[in-house]
Amino acid sequence: MIAGALWVGLMLAATGAVPAPPAPLVPPAADAPAETTAGGAPGPGLVAVGAPPADDAVLVEASTRIRAELAASGIASTEIDCLPGSQADGAGCPPAAATATISLGRENGVAVIDVVLTLPGGPELRRRVPVYSRDGGDDPAVLAVRAVELLRDLRPSARRPAPVGPASDDEEPKQYAPEPPPAPPRLWRLALGAAALASLQRPNVGPAPGIALSAGYLLRPRMSVFLTVAGPFSDTIRPRSDESATVTQGLATLELRYRFELGGVQPFGAVLTGIDYVRDAFTFPLTPTQQASGVDSTFVAAVGGAGGITFQYRDRFTATIEAQAFVTSREVLADAGQDLAGGVGRPSVLLLANAGLVLP
Questions:
Q1: Can you give the pLDDT at residue 8?
Q2: CATH no. for 188-359
Q3: Which CATH class name applies to 46-157?
Q4: pLDDT value at position 86?
Q5: How far apart are alpha carbons 252 and 263 in whole angstroms?
Q6: Cα-Cα-Cα-Cα dihedral of 355, 215, 186, 270, to 10°?
């Protein structure tokens, strides 16, 4: 033993090598615990944001907004484009430092947000939420805010699982049914109500009461056409005690309406054209003991405008108040023999109040 030690010493002296002093013994440092919240979820770390389909402009913009939202919250993020089955830290895949992953996609036209949070030790928590169009699924800002909110919701709700085998994910990806299409608009309207017609020129005819029937068709969400037939409006005028003229009118108008929607209240304006039928039945004395009578009738074209308000109840029932003002292509004078009884059409006003039904 001593000879062997002397031999080693002689060999070291011959080569000039000096043995290094032994390193001091230092106990190994314990692994630093991962930063966690009070509930056991990992604290803010690197978040991997999956690249959405390049041909979906809404999801592409939403992905950019997600990274901006994370940056505003003091959370670092990186964009990934990992193919299914790729190894971790591979090309385009989440780095090992990433504690969460956010990805966007579509299923049957519905935007879907996937958020995965990795707990210390490897188990994952996952949230998968569809966002329909009616809830903002076509708005990049809404999608970005929802995605970041889902990530924040996972952190305080996370709990470190008991070490009894791998954690199970009870939220398996689901196929969401496509958003149901909107109900087809109800196109036809029918209305029946009371009407009154008056000529505003002197000597005036009316106001005379009558009834009105209207039928409408929806061209666009705010535009429609209405056909209204109203009458008979009959007014008896006596210029003198022995003379009389009974003026009867029937009116048909075609309106192009534009409506404003304020909930169940819908004001509207319209332009119109139509036809006014005027009949004048008159009597006058020929002699103190004999009277003569006659009838004149004519059709005249009319143009004008209208305005009113519709109250709609449960998308099926309506009540409408409307005023139509129009002028005729020529003035129609009603006489009672030798005396003028009244004038029609320069201008005239038709007032309508009706109740209606919206048909499928």
A1: 47
A2: 2.40.160.20
A3: alpha beta
A4: 45
A5: 30
A6: -90
**Where do you find CATH 2.40.160.20 in the chain?**
188-359
Chain centroid to Cα 231, Å, comes to 41
Order across the sheet with 77-80: list the strands: 77-80, 46-50, 98-107, 110-118, 124-131
Report in angstroms the alpha-carbon separations of 344 from 36, 202, 251, 278. 88, 9, 12, 8
Are 264 and 319 in contact by the 8 Å Cβ rule? The answer is no
What is the Cα–Cα distance from 260 to 267, expressed in whole angstroms? 5
Dihedral over alpha carbons 42, 86, 140, 74 (to 10 degrees): 30
In the chain, where does the domain assigned CATH 3.30.160 lie? 46-157
User: Phi/psi at 152 (nearest 5 deg)?
Assistant: -65, -35
Q: What is the pLDDT of residue 26?
A: 38
What is the reported pTM? Answer: 0.50
**In whole angstroms, what separates CA 341 from the centre of its chain?**
56
User: Does position 45 have pLDDT exceeding 60, yes or no?
Assistant: yes
Question: Cβ of 222: how many Cβ atoms within 10 Å?
Answer: 13
d(CA 356, CA 104): 47
Q: How do beta strands 265-287 and 223-237 pair?
A: unpaired
CA distances from 218 to 262, 263, 312 (A): 18, 18, 15
CA dist 69 → 63, 80, 163 (Å): 10, 17, 34
